[in-house]
Amino acid sequence: MPLLHLSLPSHRLLVGGRGRLFFPSSPRRICLSVRAAGDAAVSVAAGAYGLPFRPEGAAHHRELSAAVAVVERACCLCVDVKRSLFSRRSSILEKNDQSPVTVADFGVQALISLELQRLFPSIPLVAEEDSASLRSSKADDNSSDILVESIFSAVVDKVSNNGSHLTQDDVLRAIDRGGKDAVSFDSNPATYWVLDPIDGTKGFLRGNDALYVVGLALVVNGKVTVGVMGCPNWTNDDIVNKKDDSVAACNGRGILMVSHIGCGTWSRRLSADIGQLNTAQDIWKRCFVDTCSIAHMAHYCIPDSQTWDMIPLSATYDSTTDATDPRNENEILLLSVFCGSLCKYLTIASGRASVFVLQARPTTQIKSWDHAVGVICVQEAGGQTSDWSGEPLDLAADLTSRRIIYPRGGVLVTNGALHDKLVEMISASYK
Q1: 19: number of Cβ within 10 Å
Q2: Membrane-crossing residues (predicted)?
Q3: Binding site residues for Mg(2+), as ranges?
Q4: DSSP H helical segments within 49-180, as ranges?
Q5: Quick check: is 364 catalytic?
């Protein structure tokens, strides 16, 4: 069945209930592409990035194969950009909310948008960034041309060579494909990608050991069905000595975590070189949450911007960040997992922490891309995610843009064994 391959530099898409696209005005260019061509391209990705389960039991195997390929390439982009980040002040730009955004944020979004549009042109993208700040700064300051050129260079170096000539405007439009004005949903279920180009940008800027995540998820009919997280600075403790600067130690850094509904959560190390891909099935390791079932013995995470006394559990437990400190049944261990929510989801899905608690605040919107991919990775590893009342996170609560979620009280992510008990304790303290 043919699919429409769309090039929409300046048109708004309206997405209907079954992934249908409606056009308020005619696009400038519409060309036909056959599904067979898309299948062939994804098959190449699947062959190079062999998944740990067979496609027969995975309805969205094509989408996951493509997501794995592009997220790994995006992680390489991040590493390359970070090497030269502080040599160019133009690589850092302040967004309206004053959080730092870099060449890597824009570059990752453009790269992933271009690849997904090529392979799955009918599936829209919901993502964090848009090019408005780039375009406005470019108009006001000639020196900002360097920033756009840096983004363009980072993307061109990693995008698949499909024989077409890529321009800076193509890259800016690719960024905007995931922006807030790119797509409008109706109230019916829909299929769409959710991308956080860099979760934990402050961690990305902080130092070599700080964790940050590239997170990509596929939502189908309100449920996350596919998820990929890449974390270039993740340290494999069973392989690496942090004080060892040898090549072997460097190769122990970085993790790629993948999930498919009903197929589990799996991880492997990031490829050391994008040109030398890992292909063996046995490089994948099945991920499971920890088995802690005693609340005060669990390891907890909270957002860097919040303190333990903001969490209802503080009515029952004190906290310490010292793992060597003897604890009694009235004190819990609070881990520092650097910046970003997805880092915490990654930590729980890999069994290194038991609980992540986030308080919803009136002054801060909770964005879907900070949670979507984490939800499926934790779920398929045996854990559970809900709001503070125990209800699942509603990714479709934002009826028109799918960008904001409204969890009652906040978000609770656990290893599953502790979930009901912690919901009960939170509910008793939270009004």
Answers
A1: 17
A2: none
A3: 128, 196, 198-199, 370
A4: 61-84, 103-119, 132-140, 145-156, 168-176
A5: no
Residue 307, in any domain of the structure: yes
CA distance linking residue 234 with residue 169, whole number of Å: 34
Distance CA 177, CA 43 (A): 25
Rounded CA separation 357/309 (Å): 12
Which runs of consecutive H residues, i.e. helices, occur in 143-271?
A: 145-156, 168-176, 201-206, 247-251
Q: What is the pLDDT of residues 273-287, one digit of tens each?
A: 544 445 444 489 999
Candidate list 80, 102, 105, 387, residue with the active-site label: 105
Residues 210 and 172 reside in one and the same domain: yes
Structure tokens at 148: 């756009």
Q: Between the CA of residue 123 and those of 6, 191, 351, what are the distances in Å?
A: 11, 6, 33
Q: What is the pLDDT of residues 306-321, one digit of tens each?
A: 999 999 999 999 999 9
Judgement on whether residues 114 and 207 belong to the same structural domain of the protein: yes
Count of residues making up the chain: 431
Residue set of the binding site? 128, 196, 198-199, 370
Segment 174-197 mean pLDDT: 91
Of 368, 388, 384, residue with least CA distance to 428: 388
Residue 105 a catalytic site member: yes
Instruction: Please state the domain count of the chain.
Output: 2
| pTM listed for this prediction | 0.83
Determine which one of 102, 170, 191, 201 is catalytic: 201
Give me the domain span that covers residue 67.
49-238+251-286
**Residue 5 belongs to a domain:** no
273 lies in some domain: yes
* Gap between the Cα atoms of 424 and 422, Å rounded: 5
Over residues 226-265, the pLDDT tens digits come to 999 999 989 875 433 333 333 333 345 799 999 999 999 9
Distance (Å, whole) CA 13 – CA 409? 33
Task: Output the six-digit token pair for 23.
Answer: 């056009």
